[in-house]
Amino acid sequence: MRDIKIFAGLSLLALVLFACGKSGTPNPKPPVTPPPITPSSFSFFALKVNGLNSGFTYTNVNKTPVIKLTFTTPLNKTTVASAITLKDKAGAAVTYAATYENNDSTVIIKPTLAAITKYTLDVTTGLKSAKSGSLQSAFTINLTTGIDSTNKFAAISDNQLLDLVQKQTFKYFYDFGHPVSGLARERNTSGDVVTTGGSGFGIMAMVVAVNRGFITRAEGLARMQKIVGFLKTKAVTFHGAFPHWLNGTSGAVQPFSAQDNGADLIETSYLMQGLLTARQYFNGAGTDESTLRANINTLWNNVEWDWFRQGNQNVLYWHWSPSNGWAINMKISGWNEGLIAYVLAASSTTHSVPKVVYDNGWAGNGSMKNGATYYGVKLPLGPAQGGPLFFAHYSFLGINPNNLADAYANYDEQNKAHSQINYKYCVANPKNYYGYSADSWGLTASDIEGGYTASSPTNDVGVIAPTAAISSLPYTPTESMAALRFFYYKLGDKMWGDYGFYDAYNLNNPWFANSYLAIDQGPIIVMIENYRSGLLWNLFMSCPEVKTGMKGLGFTSPNL
C-alpha cells in the first residue's frame, strides 16, 4: 500500500514538473502569423483620343492617334504591354509605343494605323499598379480610322477616267467570260455557273467594247457567235424562256432555289434586251453577221411571253418550274425592275400580249403611282423613297427614258427623281453612318458583309455600291461623276481591281467587298455609254418590233 502511495506521489510530481517546463514557468502559446496584406485595387479614371473624350467609341480617327488612359494610381509599367492590346478587325495585333505622365498614372498609347479600318483597344485586369494592385474592371475602346484623302492614282481627265472604267470593267465579261459558252459568270467565284440576265448586260457591254475599240469587231462577233450558238444548241429553255442560272459548260439548269429551277421571265428579258441590241449593231451584209442576226431572231421568237400569263390572266408571271409548276406564283407588278418584260412581251411578233396585260398586270391600273415628295423631289412611281436604284437601270439599259411617257409617268422624270432622292438621302444620312457624303452615295442591290441585300433608303445597312451612282450618270451626271472620282481616286487602293470597281463597301463598319457581280458590272459599262453617246438606247429603240410594241402600250417618244 505504501509503495502505491509513493508511486502516485511521484506521478503527480512529474505532471507538475512537465507542466512548468524546465524553467518552472508555464509554456507560452505559439505565435500567430498575421494575414497577408492585399494590395489595393485601382480603377480607370479618364480617356482621351487626340485630346477629346466621347465615351468608348471613336470614328474618323487619324492614322497616328494619341490615346491617353488615366488611372487612379501609378502603374506597374512592366504589365502594360500584356494587359493593353490593340487589334484590328481580323484579330491581328498592332504594335504601339507607350509613354507615361502624371507620375505614371497616365499611359499614352501611340500606334500607326491603316485608313478605313476598325480597331479595338482592350484593357484587361492583368494591368497592375506600382503597388501590385489589380485593375478593378476591364474595358474596350473602339476606334475606326477615317478616309485617307490622298489620291491613289494619278489624275486624268474625266473622259479618260470614263474610258478606263468601261475598259477595265469590260474585262469581267470578256477576259473572265465562261470559256465554253462565252456567257457571264454570276460572280467572280461562280465557276461554271453563268447568269442569264447578267449575260444580257454583258452582251450590251460587248457592243460598247467594239464601238470604242477595246476589242475588234471580229473579236466581238466571234464572242457573240459563241454565246448565241450555245444559247441556241445547248442551253435549256422552257417555253422559250431561260432559267436564272445555267451551267456554262453543259447548258443545264443551275437551280436558283429549290422551286426556282425552270424559267425566269425577268432574266430572259434582260438577255433578250441584250441580244436585240447586238442584232441591231451587227448589221453587216456578210454571211457571219447575217447568220448571227438570224440565230438571235430564233431565240427571240421562241419566247412564249403569252404563256407566262398563266392561263390567260391579265398579268405576267415571273417563274415557272418543270417540277413545281407555278408554285412560286410571283406576278411581275410595277414599279420595279420588270418594265422590260412587258415591253418585250408586247413587242413579240410570235407570242405577244395585249395592252390590258400591261395596264392591269404591270401598272395596276395606276396603283404603281406614288406622287409623294421626298427631300424636295416628287417621285412619280414606285415605293416610298424610290427603292433600290437598279429599278432605274436594268430596264433602261435599252429603253431610252428621255422624253418617254405613257398614261402613268414621264420616265425621264421618274428616273431622275429616283436617283436624286437616293443621292439626297445619302447626303442627309439620317442614320448617321460615317462615310456617307455627296461623294460617297448610292444604294442598290449588292453584296454586304456576310450576305447580299437590296439596299435603299428604307433598307439602309451602311453599304454603298459603286454601280448605283455610276449607272445613274444619265440622270445625275454631276453627282454621279463626283462619286466615280471618289471611288477611283480616294478608295482606289481598296476598291479598284482587275475588273474595275469591287461590288460594295462600308466605311462606317469598315468592310470592302472582294467580289464582282455580273448584274452590277454590266450596268456600269452600259449606262456610262448611254450617258456619253446614247449608243445602246439608240440601238435597242431602233428595233422595229420594239417601236410597234411600245406604241401599242401607249408610250410616246420622239425615239418611237
TrEMBL record:
Keywords: Signal. Residues 1-19 form the signal peptide. Residues 58-145 form the SbsA Ig-like domain. Pfam families: Big_5 (PF13205), Glycoamylase (PF10091). Residues 331-544 form the Glycoamylase-like domain. This is Ig-like domain-containing protein. It comes from Mucilaginibacter aquariorum.
